[in-house]
Every structure is written in C-alpha cells, then in structure tokens.
Predict the structure.
Amino acid sequence: MNLNELLNGVNCRCGKHHACPIENVFIGKGAVSHLSDLCAEYDKILLVADKNTYAAAGASVVKALPGKQLSLVTFHGDTLVPNEKAIHEVCEHINGVSLILAIGSGVIQDLCKYVSHFQKIPYIVVATAPSMDGYASDGAAMILKGMKETVPATLPKAIVGDTDILVNAPMDMIQAGYGDIIGKYSALNDWRLAHIVTGEYFCDYIYDTTYEMIERVKGVASRLLERDTDSVQILMESLICVGIMMSFATSSRPASGSEHHLSHFFEIVGLAKNEPYLSHGTDVAYSTYVTSKIREALLKSDKPQMLHRPDRDVYTEKMKSIYGKEVGEGCIALQSKSGLYDSDRLTAYRESWDKIRSVLADMPSAEEIEEILSAIGLDIHKFYDLYGHKKINDAILYAKDLKNRYTVLWLNYDLLEN
C-alpha cells in the first residue's frame, strides 16, 4: 500500500481537494533507520515515552540519532492520562527543543501532538503498537477538565512504524488496533445516517477507502494472533490510511461515531469513579456490537409519530450524577451549543424513514460482529461481565452527550418510547 502517494492528495469527485500535509510515512522492517534523515535538520530533540514504549523502541531511536542533543521525558505510572498534568510535564522540558519525537502509540502521540500544536514545535512519531488510528489524524484525544475532547492539533512531519518493533507489541494492543478498525462499520454507518437526517457533508471516496481498510484488516485476524509480520504491517498501514481519511474529511467523522462515544463514556466514568475500563480500541470493538444491537432494535420500529423528550431537568441531573458535576455541566454546555436537543428531527425521520431503515440494515448484524471479534480473541461476554447491563444502558443513553455529533445514539434517544 503506497501511503506516501496518498499523502499527495486527491482531487475528489465530491468537489473538494483532499490533502494531508504529513511529509513521510515509513512502515516496514528496519523503518526506524529513516530517523537519521528525517531528523537531519534538528539538533535538540525531546524524546517522549512511557516506561513500556521506551523499553520497546528507545534504544533503537537513540541509536538512529548519533550526534544529536537528546533529552527525555519518560512517564513511569501504570496508566498515562493525557490531561493537564501530563501536558505540564512535557512542557517543562520544551525550552530550546527544535523537534519532539513521540515514542509510543495512542496517549503518547496525542500528548505530543497537543504540545506540538500549542508550542509550535514539529514532531515525529515512532509507533510502538498498531493499536489505534490517530497517528495520521489532526485531532488530539485529550482529557481536559475531566472531559474527553478531540482538540484540533498538528499533524506529524513523519510517521515511522518499524515492524520489528510493532510485531512485538502486547497482543492486547494489536487486538485494540484491529478493534478500532472494525469499529468503522459503525462510524461509517453513522456518517451515512447523519447525511440523511441532518444534511451533513458526505464523501463517497473517503467512505469507500475507509470501508476497504475494514475488509483488508478483517481478513488477517488469525494471522495477527500469530504475530505474522506482513499482517501486522497491513494493520498498521490500514490504521494510518484511516487517519489520512480523517484529514481528508477535516474531521474524525469517517472513523468515529457512536461506538467511540460509548468507549469515551466507559473511560470518562471509569476515571471519575475509579472504576476499571478497557483500552480504547477494545472498548470501540465491543461497543460496535452494542451499536449493531441498537440498529437491529430500531429496524423493528414503525415510522415515528413523535419524538421522545423527557423532562430536561430530571435528565440533566441524572447526567451529572453519572459523570460528576464538572463533566456533566460540560456536556450540558456542549449540547446547548450544538442544538441537538432543540432540533426537531421528526420531519426528517418521517420523510426519509425508508432510507434510514436501509442504512441501518446495511451493517453487519450483532451476531456477525461477535464472530468478527472472536476471530482475534475478543469475547463479548468479558465486556458485559466488566461493565454490566446497567452501565452499558446508561452509556447508550448518555454517551451521545460527550460529543456534538449526530449518530444512531441520537436516533435511539429520539425514538426511545415509540
């Protein structure tokens, strides 16, 4: 797969020129050796890693950068949260630095992406796991004031994914990357739904390319469990390709929908209440099963005659009890600004109900999703055992409030009592 050719951009039939200003992507055996050329113009480089990612790739990175002034920020805790504290820790070491070099995957690269953007210092990422699709996206998934936010941020100058490193990533991170890709079934379905209901921009090229990545990765599940190098490369390339599609769309819409909102719910509530939660990609995978169940239930509904609208005060008090006062009030402010609660979507539903049903039906069933996840060792029963039906049902109702994006969760809410 020629990702560098894709970076050149596309004059699309949707009428837009899609572009992604990443300069280079190197995925393959020995890819870390490209760092010498990529960093040639930078003298003082800040390496950012956690204890595990530095153990995985730190020595290889340092070896590839002889003669450079290297400083290092290493996070040593068991769980790194991309919050104000972590931002401050990186920024304490930023003076005089000409390049940030992120060694890691999700949280590390989000943190470096965020700091890079606000400090106006370029960054390069050396991936240590094929665990998520954010390497090539221009949004940083941060937790600020206790709330999960995707903040506009800087794209990396380059992405380096050395398969000698990636193939040895923890298996749960490989499973998470696979799960993040499978989640695009739900995200893409939500995008089509939003296009019908709200008139949101939609691009067939971005949709088709992202869908192709799902099918590509789904076919190598068993070989990923065997740590087959070619299959790990396929997964990593597909994750980066999806990130490029997000840049093409100028939003995370092709890759993030209701399944991501559910995942964010479990993470935010877990952090707020000190409750266990799964890794992002794994939660996305299981949440895709949940959103498929929602779609199946909605397909049994008749054309709506009215919208479900509970007492607003009761609803918002329940929201604050679930998220905590600060995050709950942040959700209320976000939705007040988005206007999604105030929008009367009944006309759109009634006029387009056949199209809506067609889109809802055009996604793998929950049973098929369960089989797809089982192929890489993800057992849906573990998800239900961890969270329980009550928490999952709360997520179905309240996860939509974390984002200002129309998804099947809003359709479910609107028709809840019909």
